[in-house]
Design a protein that fits this description.
about 425 residues, alpha/beta, Alpha-D-Glucose-1,6-Bisphosphate, Chain A, domain 3, TATA-Binding Protein, 3 domains, six-stranded mixed sheet, five-stranded mixed sheet, 15 helices, globular
Amino acid sequence: MSKYVQDIRGKVNLEITNKFATQIGALIGNYIGAGKSVMVGRDSNTPSQMIKRSLSTGLMSAGIKVIDFGVAPIPVIHYGMNRYGAKVMVTISESHLRPEDIVIKIFSPHEIPLEQRHIEKVPWNQIVRLKYVQDYTDKYISSVINHITSDLIESKGFRIVVDCEKGLKNPIIPKVLNKMGCETVSVGCKEIKERNFPEPSPQRLSLVSDITTSIGADMGVVLDNDHDGVEFIDEKGNIIRHQTILAIFAKFLLEENPGNNVVSSVVASKVLDKIVSNYNGKFIKTSVNSVLTETVNNKAIFGGDEPGMYIFPQFQKCFDAVYSVSKMLEILAAKNTTLSCLAAEIPEYSRSVFTVNCEQEKKMKVLDAIKTYYESKSYLSTVDGVRVELNDYFILIRPSRFEPLIRVYIESKSSESLQRLTKSVTNIIESV
């Protein structure tokens, strides 16, 4: 069972090199011990292929049994952990932010120390053969369908527009939907050699929106290259906010199981607080990097975060876009409604998200200035950055881990208040 996800990211061949990836593989192998199994997989990006091979080499040098899934989505690889007796999985994929960056994700039951230290390598006769896995798709699909009321979905005959660009040659999500009786229209569900924009891009979202409305589809979905994040588009072509989707999922699950825990990050909208409270649940706000960990630790019925990442622990303890799409269809079928109607039931606060350039050495000064200004006026949380909270608004200031930026999230009941707060916060940051 994975409850920790560690991200390593950087520019390919500059910050993340073959030598670096080999060392990371060996460090992981030294920590978990020779003879253990580690599952590896990647997206269809060519640099991911190169880095995965180097990382696998490092694992093998430490005596690890490498189970290679090849090109496969994160939730599918994760689902195979119990089957193959692995406690750790590693995925390599292109960054959602910059095409020149690579992201190594390590999923494990315990946080793995990755600081540079002496690396132990096993003797030549203890190197274990790498094993390739070919039969993972059907078992995952069957499990998704078995955990969803697929017969109810089938009775509705939904029409869904699916964009899983930069995923697999034979993408999984259309297969899942077809087995549940949906008519699917696939857009860009194939490998692409070049890509020069973040994903899911505004162009992709706009295209799926247009197709959804033009063919009278019930919903459009756009999956990222890892298939752990998804964007939802309603039958009217509206791109639904991540916070609204979080609220829809939480509300449905708490209606059936009131009094349970729900986990999201400090970025979460105040509307999620109210929905969880309405069903006597406990809402746990954690750091952006700890949503999965805290969902598992608190035995939550649901967890999720931006951008479009949702955890349903009753299925598996992993962000899973494929299951999220299936669950949304189950909700639509059970309530005999549309996605636009579900979204309309969720109150929306006026919300602004922006970044401000800020040198690394000044980030703490910005946080201190915000705390000083607001500490006597409202409740402060310092779980991840500084979140200022009152009944009708919140302000969140989060330093970026990877860039010289401050990320600012402001939410208020009125647009006038939002503008006033935005100006006030911007002035404080710029004064530092």
